[in-house]
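Q: What would this chain look like folded?
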Amino acid sequence: MILPLIFLVTLMSGCSADSDCKFDHPTADASTIPRGLGVNIHFTNPQPGEIKMIAGAGFRWVRMDFKWDVTERERGRYDFADYDRLVKALDQYHIRALFILDYGNPLYDGNPPRTALARQAFARWASAAAKHFSNRGIMWEIYNEPNQPMFWPTGPQVSEYVDLALTVGRAFRAEVPNEQLIGPGVSGIDFSFLETCFRAGLLDYWSGVSVHPYRKTDPETAALEYCRLRKLIQSYRTRSDSSGVATNSGFPDKEIPIISSEWGYSTAWRGMTEEKQAARLSRELLTNTANGIPISIWYDWRDDGSAPSDAEHHFGLVRNTYQADRDQAYEPKPAYFAAKTFSDYLNGYIYEQRLAVGRDDDYVLVFRNSSSRRFAAWTTSNTTHRIDIPMDGGEFRVIRHTGESAGSASSGPAGLSIEVSTQPVYFGRAN
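A: My prediction, written as structure tokens:
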């Protein structure tokens, strides 16, 4: 049976005005960490020990291209064997797949699918794939960055994408109505592209709106964009009429979450060291969690190469050389340990609130489980400084975002005094 997507039906209150677009966005049915943590991969045949290492960092999703031209080499004949192998490997570690339905196919009109014939063929292939993997908890994303010339080589045309996505949406509704379809996987948060999709009725078919919030600035800056996008989605929300047909009615019967399906920081960017990448990863995940983003996919799992100035070669959590004779299949970078620390330390916790500590650039987030609370703290200021956090007396253990102990701290009359920098720390009461 399909695994329940509890975190895709969170009740999210809207922002009534731009001034309401705050950093934190608590949800009524928050996702338990690390259920929504994922990573992008570029293979269907994992190396021995590789999926174990991905699972060991706490990842519960992998995102991977599901390529049309690879799986339909003869018209109407589909070969999903490579993806069967990948899904089997993921199943062993209870990792779910987010497959991207992409790109063109020379059997039809090339890349991208632009004609009615190609769109119908793409939709038949997509629904056949979803039917083949039905009831496996797989999520399907309709295309990757269709607003970028790299992936829509004829020049991005939102109308062409809409035609394709509507054709696929209708095919899913008819053939595999219980499978999860999301889109459009845009580069950045392209409001013009997104609103055109919503206006065309694509929210009637999608279980989530996927975006790639890349930026070279602080990850916390995504919060205002998330709020703006959430308000835009709400303005186009759908419900079913008495006949069961979804309509763009604007009624709040259907909540459609924002999914961060690709986002990372390359250490080839100017000033982006591996240590800074690790801190950005932690802050990206914390920002997404606090803003009600149920799935966060980090880009990328492995470095794609070793050319010093090639940004695409340096998004990875691990280096790109396979280590056949080592316990770990790939050499971890600091960002790997940042992901692992986030998932391990906050395992089983949900986001509760952000504490006000006097400065807008200081962040203290509270997470809770059934019996205790844990905290994350950092600042976007380039100046390391101390903050006082209102807290009852007691001893607290502090760890760095990459897992090393940072000692302990005691709460006094002024609360708990913690030193914050651009590198987050986690802390909780000592038992």
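The radius of gyration is 22 Å.
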